[in-house]
């Protein structure tokens, strides 16, 4: 499948490296570098921290992915460490495994003279990272929470007891963490409910989008042709991992009503995940194979968004969706469910339409409303773009992080 590129120069290129004041070395540790929301946060944040001239970021991960070369091409170092080998069930081997990972991370802290470690999506390894405060020159540890349901995913039969254990661990270790970063106000409130009285330790720093990457004009006909779709089609785009959280079964059900009203509508699902086969079966059973396209992970998302007529986010829960911010930055009208994060960003009937979650009929009606009124859709898209530019830029996100790093390091008892 052909792709359409709409990449723009990195903001890094505008900074004179010789003039940098890199007085803080920050390591972002994330579970993987697949194309997904939190991973895009790390990529964009690292680039803008580097461009700020106040930090030298390093990215560390336990599973390589397509974002690694995109990060490295800006001059930011990326370290890929071996993944965990054993679960806590194999306790002796688990302990050996944790010691191995600790030594590898400690070696990176020494190599790059890291001042601050910020974690993303690490689950149990968050607790291991805390131990890096001892025996290294590390001055601060920050945990980032990207979702309202942030406790690790656990098999159903272990759900209640193991999640309770995690809650207890978070409460016991919270005082050792130098700060928690919530990506939205709703995530912050969820952390307080689930962890306990840590309000003073949490700061909300909203996700920010790289405005340079989105909104560049593309030829919609070229995009349609590259996908094998008729050039006069209406394109409804959604982005996210094919998981329960994203609510795709409801979008597929909604597509049946939308395509019966507007047969030239095509739904582009960008992303991959464990529910792909089940969702494809649902599409086949609904007779929608010609209308719903599973595009997998893509590196031409800005072009696909610019070619879209509508962006849909049918999630059951969220933190603060990067895909939503990217679509708004592209000037697209939004149809989204009334979940945390989304309702913080969107203004119903101004930047798009908000519908109840798990309601395929409401989802379909909202999409049909925008398809039937192109002027309304265009007006909402323009309002969405202004909203993101004013409040959710990557520049402001990086600026807030730098201020936090300086604050926690100033309170550190290490020189």
Description:
- This protein has 415 residues and is of the alpha/beta class.
- It has 2 domains: 11-208 and 393-410, Glycogen Phosphorylase B (Rossmann fold, 3-Layer(aba) Sandwich), CATH 3.40.50; 220-391, Rossmann fold (3-Layer(aba) Sandwich), CATH 3.40.50.2000.
- The protein has helices spanning 37-52, 67-72, 91-112, 125-130, 159-173, 185-195, 220-227, 248-261, 276-286, 301-307, 322-329, 342-345, 360-372, 374-391, 394-410, and strands at 24-30, 55-61, 77-80, 116-120, 140-145, 179-182, 202-204, 234-239, 265-270, 292-296, 310-313, 334-337, 352-355.
- A 7-stranded parallel β-sheet has the order 3-2-1-4-5-6-7, sandwiched between helices. A 6-stranded parallel β-sheet has the order 10-9-8-11-12-13, sandwiched between helices.
- Helix 2 links the parallel strand 2 and strand 3 (77-80).
- It is globular, with a radius of gyration of 22 Å.
- The relative contact order is 0.13.
């Amino acid at each position: 499948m052909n792709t359409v590129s709409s990449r723009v120069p990195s903001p890094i290129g505008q900074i004179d490296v010789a003039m940098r004041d890199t007085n803080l070395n920050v390591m972002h540790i994330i579970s993987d570098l697949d194309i997904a929301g939190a991973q895009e946060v790390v990529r964009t944040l690292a680039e803008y921290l580097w461009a700020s001239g106040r930090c030298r970021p390093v990215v560390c991960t336990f599973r390589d992915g397509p974002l690694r070369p995109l990060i490295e091409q800006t001059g930011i170092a990326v370290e890929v460490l071996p993944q965990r080998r054993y679960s806590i069930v194999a306790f002796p081997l688990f302990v050996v495994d944790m010691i191995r990972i600790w030594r590898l991370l400690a070696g990176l802290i020494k190599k790059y003279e890291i001042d601050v470690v910020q974690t993303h999506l690490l689950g149990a390894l968050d607790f291991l990272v805390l131990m890096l405060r001892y025996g290294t020159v590390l001055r601060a540890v920050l945990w980032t929470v990207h979702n309202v349901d942030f406790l690790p995913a656990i098999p159903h039969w272990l759900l209640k007891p193991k999640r309770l254990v995690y809650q207890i661990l978070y409460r016991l270790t919270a005082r050792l963490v130098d700060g928690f970063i919530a990506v939205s106000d709703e995530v912050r409130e969820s952390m307080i409910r689930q962890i306990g009285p840590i309000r003073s330790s949490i700061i909300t720093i909203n996700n920010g989008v790289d405005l340079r990457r989105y909104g560049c004009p593309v030829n919609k006909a070229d995009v349609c042709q590259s996908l094998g779709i008729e050039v006069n089609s209406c394109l409804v785009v959604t982005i996210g991992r094919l998981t329960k959280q994203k609510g795709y079964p409801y979008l597929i059900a909604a597509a049946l009503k939308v395509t019966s009203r507007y047969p030239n509508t095509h739904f582009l699902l960008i992303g991959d995940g464990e529910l792909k086969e089940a969702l494809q079966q649902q599409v086949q059973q609904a007779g929608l194979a010609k209308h719903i396209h599973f595009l997998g992970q893509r590196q031409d998302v800005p072009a696909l968004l610019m070619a879209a007529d509508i962006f849909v986010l049918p999630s059951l829960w969220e933190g603060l969706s990067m895909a939503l911010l990217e679509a708004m930055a592209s000037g697209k009208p939004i149809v989204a469910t009334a979940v945390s994060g989304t309702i913080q960003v969107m203004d119903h009937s101004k930047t798009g339409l908000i519908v109840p979650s798990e309601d395929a009929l409401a989802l379909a009606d909202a999409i049909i409303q925008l398809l039937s009124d192109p002027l309304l859709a265009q007006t909402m898209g323009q309002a969405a773009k202004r909203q993101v530019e004013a409040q959710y830029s990557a520049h402001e996100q990086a600026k807030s992080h730098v201020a936090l790093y300086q604050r926690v390091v100033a309170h550190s008892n290490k020189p």
